Automatic annotation (TrEMBL), chain A:
It is a multi-pass membrane protein. GO terms for cellular component: plasma membrane. Belongs to the binding-protein-dependent transport system permease family. It is found in: Cell membrane; Membrane. This is Peptide/nickel transport system permease protein.
TrEMBL record, chain B:
Keywords: ATP-binding, Cell inner membrane, Cell membrane, Membrane, Nucleotide-binding, Translocase, Transport. One of its GO terms (cellular component) is plasma membrane. One of its GO terms (biological process) is peptide transport. It comes from the Bacteria. It is found in: Cell membrane. This is Peptide/nickel transport system ATP-binding protein/oligopeptide transport system ATP-binding protein. SMART domains: AAA.
UniProtKB/TrEMBL annotation, chain C:
The lineage of its organism: Bacteria, Bacillati, Bacillota, Clostridia, Halanaerobiales. InterPro entries: BPD_transp_1_N, MetI-like, MetI-like_sf. This is Peptide/nickel transport system permease protein. One of its GO terms (cellular component) is plasma membrane. The chain crosses the membrane at residues 9-29, 101-128, 140-165, 194-213, 256-280, 292-320. The keyword Transmembrane helix applies. GO terms for biological process: transmembrane transport. Residues 101-316 form the ABC transmembrane type-1 domain. Gene3D superfamilies: MetI-like (1.10.3720.10). Belongs to the binding-protein-dependent transport system permease family. It is a multi-pass membrane protein. The keyword Cytoplasm does not apply. It holds the Pfam family BPD_transp_1.
Amino acid sequence: MKNNSSESKITKDEDIVMSNPFKAKSHWQLMWEEFKNHKLAMGGIIVLILLYVSALFAGFLTPYDPNERFSKFPNIAPMQINIFDDNGLTAPYVHPIVGKRNMETLAMEYTVDQSQQIPVNFLYKSDDTYNFLGLFKTNLKLFGSDETQIFLFGTDGLGRDIFTRTIHGARLSLTVGLVGIAVSLVLGLFFGGISGYLGGMVDNFIQRVIEFTLAIPKIPLWMGLGAALPQDWSVIQVYFAITVILSLTGWVSMARVLRGQILSLKEEDFVKAARAAGAKSGRIISKHLIPNCMSYILVNLTLAIPGMIIGETALSFLGLGLKAPAVSWGVLLQEAQNVRAVAQYPWYFIPGVFVIVAVLAFNFVGDGLRDAADPYH
Amino acid sequence: MKNKDKLLEVKNLRTYFDTRRGLAKAVDGVSFDVYKGETLGIVGESGCGKSITSLSILNLVPQPKGKIYGGEILLHRDNDEVIDIAKLKRTGKKMKDIRRKDTAMIFQDPMSSLSPVYTVGSQIMEGIMLSHDVNKSEARERAIEMLRKVGISPAEQRINDYPYQLSGGMNQRAMIAVALSSNPSLLIADEPTTALDVTVEAQILELMEDLQQEYKMSIMFISHDLDVIGEISDRVVVMYTGKVVEVAEVEDLFYNPSHPYTQGLLQSIPKIGRKKELKPISGSVPQIYNLPDACHFAPRCPHKMDICTKKEPPVFDVGEGHQSKCWLYEEGGKRNEG
Amino acid sequence: MLNFILRRTLIIIPMIILISMISFLIITLPPGSYIDSYLANLQQMGGEVEQSRADTIKERYGLNDPIYLQYWKWVKGFPRGDFGMAFSEERPVINIIQERIGYTILISSLTLLFTWVLSIPIGIYSAVKQYSFGDYAFTFFGFLGVSIPNFLLAIIIMFVGLRFFGINLSGLMPVQYMGEPWGLSKILAVLQRIWVPVVVVGTAGMAGLIRIMRAEMLDQLRQPYIQMARSKGVDEIKVIIKYAARIAVNPLISTIGWLLPQIISGGTIAGIVLGLPTLGPKLYDALKIQDMYLAGTIIFFNIVLILIGTLLSDILLALVDPRIRYD
């Protein structure tokens, strides 16, 4: 009896220690705890990790070279990898594509033969050599088959594998936002910082510039600048030009957030107190201003990336951004410009689904971060 | 005070907030009466539950986290009807009827308690038309009369003013006009003078006393300021961490405080001419999520006894109309159950 | 009030000058332009008439002059409504603008209306029923709306129309109505299609607006005047609409500042995909063939429309919020 009560006392004490509200947690710890509770945001994080990892290992994950044309197999519908057949669970197999001569037109027609089963080989040595993470050349692929082509998302009008192209397209489409945001961040930190810090005339001028930039409709501006890119530029040149174009409007919101934060933080009691206590400017900036702005900057970054992804996709879709042979989601979606084509070959739209999923994931993560960063929401 | 008819009986009221950190017992077993025509002061530090008590009486506890978990709030209406407000639906018809005709409330911050986008006049007229069966022009006449009564002049012009065009004191007068436009039997004033300058505060208190005479209403006056409470109240309820610790007539309370908390409060007010040193209450108000067992005041109490940390004290009668929730009076006073 | 309107209007003038500069800069960026090939073509045809015409054009637009002179030669025609030539169509740019700006304004206004009419009640509902299932559902659909790029949504809607209903939703009206006088059947035919760009562009801005309205509502519902109104016995629905929402919508008016650029922007690409008779598709064509004055003028008008919209919203805000007027 006595033993019991002392035991329960100990556990009680532990509970108190565990849930002690006075135990200081860092801002980031608190943010993470809030963020973890945001289910959509956590889902978004997982989706993004999957997408970026796929983009990184695109060569391994996809069976072909993105620009390889299977001219015999245009507009093949997506093929399924099956693991059940009439006898129940079995090794993964596909129904192969077979050619048959149409006796009226005398042309070869290729269709999926539902009656045959061809096993899928994993860790398959293919004909396509690629550079694994830029380290070494290999031809090892996640899956493939000697006896048939496997088009998970079908093929386009030129017989290119849409699955391969979509995963490879993620490389350009998902990084254009990151590079763009990095440029925006530098511009935004610089102009927002000096605007909030110096105040006065400089602030006033930068504010007018920001207001004006916000009033400019993005798509017409991007289109105008995209159209101005020389036709003979390489993919890399165009890629960086696009990130710069997107950043021209992207830095504005960053600068605004930062300026607002710095202005209000300058007036906060804890900053005044630090100053009154004799803290030097450097210490105030590093210990008080920057840490307090960081979470807002992070939120803003996350929420700005989807806009950049959409921007690249839209420009390339219109033919004013990246162009073939570059492979990006926007370039792939050019195939979907004609609604009649989409109606006939709905799988042309699959890269669009990836765009939507990626953007949605970024928005969820950004929203989760926003809620987590604002302790008073 | 001569009239001992009860207007309102609050019995064992419990209003809790279901927050992420746990159940916050903002008001926990509060009981008191309000008599017809009296001014009942409710005093306590911020967070003691006095405002939540007053909002509970109007069934206006902030949603969705707050809720009346138990107890009774019995209102005796003019037609001898007795209604338990605690049982009414928050947005129900009956509750609205009570708010329109029987009760009224004025709030702490005069600048934000009137809608900034409607004129003062239209906000008074709205109250008049909700409580009385009058048309718009009659309501306007009455609104002008109300403004005159609360000392806003020229009333005919001021009636078209927006709240931001009036000073804080004027806004508080306007709010009183809105509140009294329904001719209520109970006026709840939640820290009505806290946001005002001292000179304006005195004017507002005087105005309230005058209007109480005229309207023959009861006032529940809530404040953290013992001076103001002493000036305006007939009887005083002292609250601490969601519980009533002492109830007494105002003179009795000031000259003969029984609860150690009340004593501490009185000793910590500075008085001109008093040379005695101020004695603040030691320690600080416990967190609402982390209240001591038994007596909540025990950790700060200079008279703490063994029993104080073991068993919650009941309410003891310590004199005529004077109750105290403290074990010190177990022998001296009579035990009062309920 | 009049003073306020006058002041706000005057600020616009330097802005318009700035916009004309930026528009000009954009269209002169590409190396070579349509004029060059156009002139080359004219010269190839030979003949004295063609040669003199080429010279006139060169002279008119100062093609051999430094860039600031070229700019000046372009903008000095603005007050007379001369925005240069659309070389690809061999007619003045202003004619094309006149044909199309009406539809652009119509679709933009409808989109703005659509966004507001849906977001305001949803924002109110989400605030009043905070953390309810409906609140979460609306938030989710709002996110879906922002996350689907306008041009993809346009394709999706057209795809669904074509595949499942067998109707062609591109364009603003079926071909047979084009050039016909307006009549009931033509209006009905337009109504059958005009919702597509409105929905496509509107859904993109809705999530932001719902979020702002919800946050403003939550903020207002916490204000003491709400409790004051309730304590008077005002009906709950009236407390929500007449008191809280009445103030919560004010900041929404100022969102026109960012909503309008978004609508013009989204409308441009939706117009291209849907083949609408708006400015967007013309801008696209002009940019592709570097028909510089046409492209520049459309960019110019797009931004001017936004400025005027923002001006109107500022005036509206001053009208509904008495506090601003007395500043």
